[in-house]
Amino acid sequence: MEFYLGLLQILGVHTLLGLSAYVVLLTGQVSMAQAGFYAVGAYVAAMCTAMFGIHILPAVIIASVSTGILAMIVGFPALRVRGLMLVVATLAFGEMVRMFFFNFRWQIERDGKLIGPNGAEGFRAIRFFPENGWETGDVALFIWCIVVIVLGLLWWVDNTRAGAVLRAVGHDEVAAQSVGLNLTTIKVAAMALGGAIAGIGGGLYAHTVTHIEHGVFGILLATFAIAYPILGGLGSVFGTLLAVIFIQGFLVEGLRFIGDWRSLLFGALILLVMNLRPTGLLGERMSPLKTLFSRKSPVVTNAKETQ
Amino acid sequence: MMLKLEGMSKHFGGVKAVDDVSLTMNEGEIFGLIGPNGSGKSTTINLITGLYAPTSGTVSLEGRDLTALAQHERTALGVARTFQNIRLFGNLSVAENLWVAQNGHEQRRQHFISRWFKAGGLQDTNIDELLRFSRLHSKKDSLASALSFGEMRRLEMARALALNPKVLLLDEPAAGASIEDGQLLGERIRAVRDRGVSILLIEHMMELVMGITDRMAVLNFGRKIAEGTPSDIQSNPDVRAAYLGTKNKNKEPADA
Questions:
Q1: B1 and B69 co-located in one domain
Q2: B92 closest CB neighbour out of A160, A168, A306
Q3: CB distance from A294 to chain B under 8 Å?
Q4: pLDDT 10s digits, A241-263
């Protein structure tokens, strides 16, 4: 039981990570910086609770706001480049964050012990949950309450004009400009929203594992972040949720018994899914039922892009 | 006057795509812009909307200088366009395409929340009216990428109209259409003008241009070679030379 509750926690924080990439991906930007924002969120929230004794909820909010602002600052210069160059730029930012925490030392004394980020050693004893007597189940419930709120909020935004505008920018930037949309504002707003969500995910993650270090927030995590919405499809937020359950629940945890062959199968399965469903598990803007019973193969609408 | 271009030039390296072009469009006018392929017509539209920054020259709308403004600012002031190769938001429904475009000067006065986060916007009366005007009402929930070619053209024009523009720039709206469709299009363009929108029409279908424009200008190799009423243009020897060629080499522009 404990194992499944732990898995639920992992699924929760990874859903937040995936949603943060989903928002940015809606505008057509592939951001590899989400792991970086996740890392900042993790450290900020952990410092709030472990070093300054703040409750987890305000700590996560502080983390979210600070990563949102950071994403906005990063967004302005980064979104001036596109496509592959943006991937490289955001990847560089992610590595920068990682190396920052590799070197970041700031420890204060609390209850007779030194606590705080300690460079390559990482940040140990983020013990808000055990100190306050939260069981694994309580933590999982807490995380999923937040996940449901974020999912619901994003789903709602997706169905307002703002959501349509994000998709419009993602589909055709020239046309989007021609209907009076300010690309910079919209992309930076999406980046900031994505950053804020990654911050929440990171903040929660730090408290579930109680020990964070720079190595966790590398390129692999950034790849996972972007893989969720791509695999799940940009049809709706639920695609990302489904992809997280598929990758973390089935591929990573469910196939643990096959040992080292897992990584190979992992790649092969993703290749298979992308071949069978090029627009992701839930497709692009189609109801899952309709696509399930439709005979037509999914069409990649961007493929006939003309310039 | 509505729209005014003064000494507009756009050079791509050594190519003078648009070279010292001045145009004046009056309010409520359908103004034609014609010329052979590569004569700088689309570039002129791109200069007016701000997609390209001019090498030199100015563009103004109702006396207000637009030259330094970004595209979205020009759109907010009332400049809208369509594209030669249709550019719809294929991942959005027909109604959503219009919804996204509600960025004109009228809509900008709305409150931030109601402008961006109103979920009931698809019941908007403006959108409804535009859908009926464009005969797309029955298709309002289908994906824009699933429309027929003619429907796509109509939707693109409707999307531009959703901005409540003062000037609508149409870049070859009849491309790919039959002669009969061209005549229908002419009626539609007049109907748009009757909504109070001035129109700049780039077109190769001469029946259409000659039939509906009040005045027109002719570009060749980026330069304006003639301006006047359709009948003036039809009898202009320089225009005939540009389209049909001439035996007299001296009539060719110097930089040809």
A1: yes
A2: A168
A3: no
A4: 999 998 898 888 888 888 888 87
